[in-house]
Amino acid sequence: MTYRKKNIFNKHSITKKCAWSLILEAKQVISDANILTKSISISKLINNNLYKYSYSLEKNKIIRKNFNLDAELQNLFDLYMPIIFNGKNNPYLIAHIAQTLDGYIATKSGESKYISSPNNLEHIHMLRAISDVIIVGTNTVKLDNPMLTTRLVKGLSPMRLILDKGNVLKNNYNVFSNRDGNGYKIISDKIKNYSNNVFILPLYKNKFDLNDIISLLKKLNKKIIYIEGGGSTVSNFYNNKLLNKMHLCISPIIIGQGHSSFILPKIKSLKNIKDNKIKYFKMGEDILCDIDLSIS
User: Fold this and answer.
1) pLDDT digits (tens, 9 = 90+) for 77-102
2) C-alpha dist (Å) from residue 147 to 74, 79, 101
3) Backbone phi, then psi, for 206, in 5-degree steps?
4) Judging by DSSP bridges, how do beta strands 224-229 and 92-100 pair with one another?
5) DSSP characters for 161-227?
């Protein structure tokens, strides 16, 4: 009797830190060149081991790899790789909101640190690391004074762009005072300003035209745009059908009253509600809804 010898591949074991490095390497690959093939091969030498994988742009998944992934690490690739390899020529816009079970992002006084779990907070920093720009509104900076950096994970902090039509924010806020010098704001063209960290756009009915903002991002060659907050800013992009993806994190707490997650027009009939493709990911005690809003 003849036995055929099977090909056996010794696959590397992999840690979360290593998996994240391989995801960041994918971001570097897409930043360095225009991807025209149906799949892309990525490799990185980590601790004297060469990790390799191929990602299908058609199937949005890994098709070959020389390492093993458990369910938690597979979720990392499933969450971030479709954002990195989104296939859009125009800027790709993703928003994130963390809310309570009863639909609030903050208490009535504006307190929001931290509604979601540490796992989701790490996720927010990972989203920052794969993005080219973070956009937030004025009130988010006023209430939270966030840094909007990637200090919890490996990866470069992207440009921070604050929508500050009245130019009310001073440069002592964390988003501007960080020594990387990557904090900017957009103000009304009616206001005279000579700062280096300011972009000027016109107002229409006392609001920025979001298409003007996207045109500015194109000129700056920014590809992945992360709308981090607050609810009014996210709702504005959502209402104008400019978001490609929404990450909605639901935390298992109830606060009764507060600031609503979304500020949207009332829908008269459930028949007018569009179904979206959703994937669910567990993050500590939270559930993350990965909602595809891309228009076919």
Assistant:
1) 999 999 999 988 889 999 999 999 99
2) 29, 24, 27
3) 65, 20
4) parallel
5) EEE-TT----TTSHHHHSTT--EEEEEETTS----TTEEEE-EETTEE-HHHHHHHHHHTT--EEEE
Contacts of 173 (CB under 8 A, 6+ apart): 141, 145
What distance in Å separates the CA atoms of residue 43 and residue 41, rounded to the nearest whole number? Answer: 7
Domain boundaries, the chain: 16-70, 92-264+274-292
β-pair type (133-137, 104-106) = unpaired
CATH superfamily, domain 92-264+274-292, is: Dihydrofolate Reductase, subunit A (3.40.430.10)
Tell me the C-alpha distance between 198 and 207, whole Å.
17
pTM (global) more than 0.90: yes
**Block residue for tokens 């500590």:** 284
Classify residue 42 by its DSSP letter: E
- What does DSSP assign to residue 54? E
